[in-house]
Amino acid sequence: MIEDEISLLDKISDYYGNTILKELKSKKKEIQKVFNILIEKEAKKFNLVSENSVHNSRYVQVISRVKKKNSFREKLIRRNIGSKIINNLKLTEQNFDRSKAKISNEVENLDDVIGLRLVCDLNKDCPGALEMISNNLGFLKEHKISFKTGEIESQPQKMKNGLSIYRLKGVFDDRIGFELQIKSKIDEAWGELDHFIFYKDYSFFPSKTSVQQTMNNVGKLLDKIEDLLYDLRRSKDDYNKNLKNLLFTQELSEAYSSKIKDILGFSYQVEKLAPTLRFFIENYYPTFNIKDEENSEMSFKFLKYETSNENYKYYRNRSIELKLIEAIYINVWECETKQKLTSENYKKFSSHLCEALLENIKEEILQADTLSDYDQDLIENNFNLLIKFNSNENPWISGRLFSEFSKIRREVLDFISENFESEMEDEILGEDEIEQIYSIFLLCQFDANLEEFLDNLTERNYTQQVIIKLKEKYSNSISLNIIEKKINVFSLQILNHLAI
């Protein structure tokens, strides 16, 4: 029986190698051509192009492959695909030739025989490449390319090792399946090496587990190299950005420093206000010239008005920085909208202001963060958690603390994936508990009401064990960086409360 099935699988593989493969290679070229056109047309809009006085270069390119005959045969057997084809088509030696058209359809529908990769220079470019695809689904559809429902929204996906991957299942011409991955050049090279060493090596050798752990650690080191390369690439952009910030801060100081001093009775560092106000102006009123406000008056009448967000009001009334930001932004808003702020329209204005403040926080975090999966929704959820548990540090204007926390979060998640891999695979340490663990560190970072949160933990299977092991790791380290020192202090703080 098994001999008959293997014989049929060999015939399918031969038919694939002699006939189907040629057709798939042709379709692969068509698909790749569409993505090359898309990149040529749209890459600049999504910050995937570098421009200088000499030449322009793209941060993303398309590579593709179709599985070779031997790899295809192995796929048929290893993933039971061949058995399904045989059973679905009721294949026999006698009807094989008559079933070739149906076999072609079955193979063409497989979602990873054709593989494409958008290879980006750095991991930081991958979200932009995904956004480029997401914003051009109409263009792709015109060229007979579509993605299965939910594919775009579910990216990036979590792998068993805790790392993330961008992997989308697509269809060309309503029948040809393909898989599209988005990854950096370093991840591409690393994946090829890891694949070569382990993917098709099913043999046992005593050091295999330790070798795999070493490979995983090297992979994490490569992530840190990615961060350094990104910093180097950003250095020129940062210089230009910092120059613009300096010019804006100077104009802000000239327009408002003396007014603020008259109100407070002492000089105030307007540079603390500049990044937020610059974000507001550039994103909402880009034609506004702050020099026009040199003769305007600052008013704080809005403090008496009813706001649309009581949480914002709570923090604003305890922050001179937020009060000043709002007062200056009111000047901008009045100048640009040709309206006067009143108690009647203040709720609408304050709603806009809160949205703008949150968008500023998100932008600041995403620019500083190297975690592709720390997206806007997750940031907003973290923000709301801080509001709920009364953080002492002001979350409305603490982008720096959020950015620093993203590195703490990454360190904690890496530690969990490295030390609790089997528990994650068995799903006894689930995503909800992992999210709960890093939320505890978020509350520590913002000096929120940690006690209330810990007293109401919904998942306790491994939370304490993870924090104990984190404390043990960093307590025994000779030299700690800033992030590791914070994790060490926070772990002790958490364990003291839990009386471990």
TrEMBL record:
SUPFAM superfamilies: Nucleotidyltransferase (SSF81301). Residues 64-203 form the RelA/SpoT domain. This is RelA/SpoT domain-containing protein.
